[in-house]
Known about the structure:
two-stranded parallel ribbon, 11% strand, alpha+beta, globular
Amino acid sequence: MEIVEDVVIVGGGVAGLATAVALKRIGVEALVLERGEELRTIGSALTLMPNAWVALDALGVSHELTSHLYKQK
Length: 73
C-alpha cells in the first residue's frame, strides 16, 4: 500500500502537531511520524515564548492550554 502526502513531519511533539494542524487548515495534507507507540505523560515541563502563544492562538488552541494553567489542584 502506497501512501502519498504533500508533507512528511518527523516528530509528533508540539511543533510537529502544530505544523500539521496549520498545514491542514490551508489544504496541505501531512503525514506525522512519531516513534512513540502511544500518547503519554512524561512529567516534563513546557516553556512557551510569546511568539509560541501567538502561533497557538492563530491555530485556535491557546485557550486549551490556558484553561489547564489556571486549574486549582
